[in-house]
Amino acid sequence: MFQRPRFRAAGWVAATVVLAAAYLAPVPDAVRSGGYGVLAVSVLGASIAVVRRRRPQPAWTWSLVPISAVLFLIGSGLRPWADSGDGNRAFAADPFSLSGYVVLSVGLARLARAAGGLRREVVIDVLVAGLAGAVASVQFLVLPVLELPGRTVTGSVLAGVYPLLDAFVLLLVLDLLLTAPQVVAYRWLGACIGAMLLGDLGYALIGRQGQFIAPTAFDAPFVVSYFLMAVALLHLPRRTSPDRRRTARFDAWSPARLAVLGTSLAGAAYLASTRVNQSHLEQVAAFVLLCVMIGLVLARAVVAVNGHATAKAVLEHRATHDALTDLPGRDEFERRVDTQLADRPGPACLLFIDLDGFKLVNDSYGHGVGDELLCETAQRLRRLAPPGAVIGRLAGDEFVVAVTGDLAAAVDLAGGLIAGLRAPVRLPVAEVAVSASLGIAELTTSFAVALREADAAMYRAKAHGRNQFAIWDESLRMQVGDEVEFELDLRSAVAEHALEVHYQAVVSLATGSPRGVESLLRWTHPLHGPVSPVRFVPVLEETGLVVDVGRWVLDTALADLRGWRDQGLVTADFVLSVNVSPRQLLDPFFADTVGELLQAHRVEGTALMLEITESSMLQQDEQTVQLLERLRSLGVGLAVDDFGTGYSALSYLRNFPVTRVKVDRSFVSGVDRNIGDEAVLRAVVAVSNALELAVTAEGVETEEQREVLERLGVGHGQGWLWHRAQSVADTARYLATSRPVAVEPRPALRAD
Description:
Strand content: 5-15%
Distance between the termini: 19 Å
Shape: globular
Number of strands: 16
Structural class: alpha/beta
Number of helices: 27
Number of domains: 3
Radius of gyration: 33 Å
Strand order of the largest sheet: 8-9-11-12-13-14-15-16
Helix content: 55-70%
């Protein structure tokens, strides 16, 4: 009961039309009024039940919508009795109706703020449009009614206030639609407010003609409004969506907002200049009003420009600093070392710090406590480091400090850092204590070399019992071992941008034409040649380097996609797939990073597919779900990579907003000769179809495999049958000779 409906928008529109036609049918007024009351009470009861059952976020805000509707219903019920009386009785319904507007406005304002709206630009837009609406309301509704005999000043003002209030709440809904267009409930809520505005305008217009009681047919817009409110509540977003989905890009000068401003200014100017028989006071008031509106627009321009500059500075800071500790990241740390220390005479040293026992804290108390410990560590390093020192966080629990001075000064500082970091840390769940292992190296030839040497010295400190420091010397090279040497070489490769992005085509099984590519990371060691990703990617994960490398891969791949588009090699429906590590999903700003890179390269979110592993889905915590929902709100597709090799719980496919399943090559290799593999694939396709997920098969190498996969209903595949992973230049040549003959419709994506 109360499940989200699966009707299409056209079905709800048709139902709305049928309801309005039924209400306007030639029936007695008593029947029409009774039907109105039954419908309103039923909708309110069902709406309250839906809100209580779904408990949407932000808390209690959506409850204000049916509460306001209850107040409106009480006001509507009292109005016939009130309009038939004199004195204060004539206004008995207005306190309830006005209270309904207040409650509804509060609810809409909270929704707008939760969705990322209610910015200063939006508030100014509302003020400008509200002033224009006030001018129109006064000229066409309030002043004409004041001249009617038997109409009180209070009644005339209220007749003009209601359309103005409707316009105000409609603007709040408009802000919701501009800020979070992906939320379907906001669209229906806008239609609901629009119907209410139409009804109030109807009452105001007949009031101009001296009619105090309108025919029951004039309540048709309010009947439609109640129905549309119920439709909006039935499309409530998930609990995690409205208050956390702030990834939609805000455009202060969008065409829609400019249209609101232009129409408001032009309308106010026209109305103020065309009213005849204006007194001197009215002329002055009109002039002041126009000046105020123009001043608001100018203030809005200044706010927008300042906001753009501030946002740019924030984005630049975020791109160069660690999101958790606000310390400089690797690239920014290296830049500061080069600029701040290079100009100072004398030697300089680099200290590489790694926390001992951090993994135990993380595993015992969770990532949240681990993050708090890292933040406290960063604060202690700031306090303990001397003035002028450069502090940074590389990844995970690895920190670096660069200082001027000789080795003796660096040794003294290392002793102080180790003692300071060893002190217990009081956290909400417990008091924890970790030590630190520290490596020291002189900054002589380059930052990359010093970092590599300090890292090796840190490993020596760990090997000698931890909670101490070691100084790099040449004897370390023979002692650190092959694994440490491999990690150091990999760190150098990352620092020197020696990694490469290759691409493998994802093709249509039916036509063999490329429908996208998957980006794959490659590394060629200067001495040992190509290194398998199976070996170096886990090291990237363990060291935390995968976060920075993952961002670089996404940036590079989107730039290559943009280049292929500009060369006319691919169309807008060509999809780029990029692998995402579990560590990247722990970054709260990952969705913002994806959105910024999409915008920077002028690529739509629908052209990007992020591939996540089943281990990422295993955590299934609220933060991961929220992040994936935010990525989906950008239009980005989500694929489960290597499906079948891990836990493969079907609940993951149901609970996570994934759009595609990639079947692992281990099931594909024997599908043409192993009945068990075929049965597994058949089941995966059936489940995927039921959940409206697309399916891609990996590792297709023979025509026989392709035929079986196509027969089973798999839509796409990748493998050596069509294309081996190649460099960007070779992939461009492949695309130039393998352009699709026709654009196929993309598989349906599961809705949010």
